[in-house]
Amino acid sequence: MNQLIVMLEKQILKRVTLKTTSITLGRNNKSDITLPDRTISAHHARITVIRDDCFLEDLQSTNNTYVNQHIVERHLLEDGDIIGLGKYHIVFRSEQGLSAQLKRLTLHPKLMDSGYEAWLQIRDGHKAGYIIPLKEARIVLGNQTLGQILVERTPSGDYIKRENGTMNNHRTQNLSPGDLFKVEDTTFQFCLKESNTHDKQRSPHE
Predict the structure, then answer these.
(1) DSSP state of 182
(2) What is the distance between the alpha carbons of residues 196 and 48, in angstroms, rounded to a whole number?
(3) Which residues form a coiled coil (predicted)?
(4) Which of 14, 27, 94, 130 has the fewest beta carbons closer than 10 A?
(5) Are 132 and 44 in contact (CB under 8 A)?
(6) E-strand stretches of 68-163
C-alpha cells in the first residue's frame, strides 16, 4: 500500500498509509497531515488516489510545492519521490511494480508518433516490441524494493539512466542509441530519432 514518510531535518516524524482517496497537507490543523510551518499555506497541497496512481496537486500555495526539488502544480507520484513543503520533506513510497507501470506507459509500435524524439523499446516478455515514448523529463521504472531505474532528459537534451532514484545515488550513465538495460526481468533498449543522432554526431564547425 502507498505510504508517506514525513521528515524534518532528516528525522522521521511519522508514517501515513494512504487508505483514503484524498489526503490534504497544510498548516491548518484540520488538514489530514498538519505541518506547522509559517512558510506552508493553511491548505497547501492535496494527494488524490485514483486506482493505483497517486496525484499530488498544489492548492495555489504561497510558496509552491516541490517534488525532487522542482516546482510542480500537478504531479504523478512515483516510488521514492521527495515532496518538499516548507522545511518538511515527505517521501512517497509505493509497492507498485513494473507491470502496472508498463500498462500505463507503453504504446503499440503502430501508434508511434513521428514527433517522438526518443523512446524505450521493450525487447522481451509479453510487452516485447512495445514502446515507451520519453515525452516527460523523467520516467521511473520499477520501485526501490526490487530495483528502480530513472531515465532523465538533461537541460542540454541528452538522456541519462540513474539507478535507484535516490538523490544521493551517483550511479548514472549517459545513454546512447542502442543501449540496453534491465528492470526486474524486462530488457529495454534506448532509441533516438535518427535525425537527432546525426545532429549529435555532427561537428560543431559543420
Answers:
(1) E
(2) 38
(3) none
(4) 14
(5) no
(6) 70-72, 74-76, 82-85, 88-93, 118-122, 131-133, 138-143, 147-153, 159-163
| pLDDT tens by residue, 8-24 | 998 999 999 998 999 99
Phi, psi of 144 (to 5 degrees): -70, -20
- Amino acid (one-letter) located at 35: L
Query: What stretches in the chain show pLDDT beneath 50?
Result: 165-168, 198-206
* Amino acid (1-letter code) at residue 171: R
Q: What is residue 100's predicted lDDT score, i.e. its pLDDT?
A: 82
Q: What is the 3-state secondary structure (H, E, C) of 10-69?
A: CEEEEEEECCCCEEEEECCCCCCEECCCCCCCCCCEEEEEECCEEEEEECCCCCCEEECC
Helix (H, G, I), strand (E, B) or coil at 128: coil
Grid coordinates of 114: 513521428
Q: 65-78 burial, b if ≥16 CB within 10 A, otherwise e?
A: bbbbeeebeebebb
